[in-house]
Write a structure and sequence with these properties.
single chain; 13 strands
Length: 284
């Protein structure tokens, strides 16, 4: 069995490890870091650069994971390989999107049936990309699955390094909550979908416990035996426009569908269990 990853990034590496253990051959594209792809157990291809080899892999793939994000409002994988993907014989195609497509819901619960109403440019671009993939799938009967990811954390992407360095910040915006997901739980959900395809399905990937970001930082500090950073009021805090934009949306994302349809049992159902595991593994 062969998996092709278009845009082999952080999350794809965790899926590669699971599939490698089951005897799959994995190929992943990268712009400039083939050693990182190789370290995950996948064969690297440069894209841009190795387009003909990528097309060969599309033709041979049993599964295709699209992890490359939109660029200037356009999906790079569709722009480069749309006709090739239209002819693929893969029995599973996964597209990694974001819960940002739902927009702001004032902290209320949302699920996969919630209308899409993004408020950021990133969210609008993802909606456009999702629609483009859905149109290609409809036109060519492709087994497309869309996964909307919450905030990703995991080894190398935790708060501990910043807390130790004294650079972590605890920004407080009343009523603000985020959903998040450990990278290992992303991988196990993708694997479950590959094993039980349901073309056309859309899944939210997040844990059970949406929480204010300042609570996560405070808990991580407690685990380290450090005093939490001082609370900073969002309204007056100095932040980059990009950082501030992440606070434009507040919602609690439901993950009931991955449990019901895919039988996923989260390894890290909340940030407390996920952070404890990261610290026990010596990670940041």
């Amino acid at each position: 069995m062969r998996l092709l990853v278009l845009g082999h990034g952080y999350s794809a590496g965790f899926l590669a490890a699971l599939l490698k253990a089951e005897g799959w051959q994995i190929t992943g594209t990268t712009r400039s870091q083939p050693e990182r792809v190789l370290a995950s157990g996948a064969t690297p291809l440069l894209w841009p650069g190795d387009e003909d080899a990528v097309r060969d892999e599309i033709a041979r793939a049993d599964a295709i994971l699209v992890s490359a994000g939109p660029q200037e409002g356009h999906d790079p994988a569709l722009a480069a390989f749309g006709p090739d993907i239209a002819r693929t014989r893969a029995r599973w195609i996964g597209y990694l999107s974001t819960t940002g497509v739902y927009g702001d819901h004032g902290g209320d619960w949302i699920d996969e049936e919630t209308p899409l109403s993004p408020t950021t440019r990133r969210g609008h671009d993802r909606v456009t990309a999702e629609q483009a993939w859905q149109a290609l799938a409809a036109a060519h009967a492709l087994p497309l699955h869309i996964f909307r990811l919450a905030g990703i954390y995991g080894p190398g992407r935790g708060p501990f390094a910043k807390l130790r360095a004294g650079t972590a910040r605890r920004i407080v915006k009343p009523g603000q909550v985020f959903s998040r997901i450990h990278a290992e739980d992303i991988a196990q959900a993708l694997l479950a979908s590959i094993k039980a395809p349901r073309p056309g399905a859309i899944y939210n990937l997040c844990d059970d416990d949406p929480a204010p970001p300042e609570d996560v930082i405070a808990h991580a500090a407690t685990l380290l035996g450090l005093a939490p950073p001082p609370a900073e009021d969002f309204a007056s805090a100095e932040m980059t426009p990009m950082a501030r934009s992440f606070y434009a949306e507040s919602k609690r994302v439901s993950n009931e569908r991955i449990k019901r349809e895919l039988g996923v049992r989260l390894k890290y159902p909340d940030y407390r269990s996920g952070l404890a595991a990261l610290l026990a593994e010596g990670g940041d």
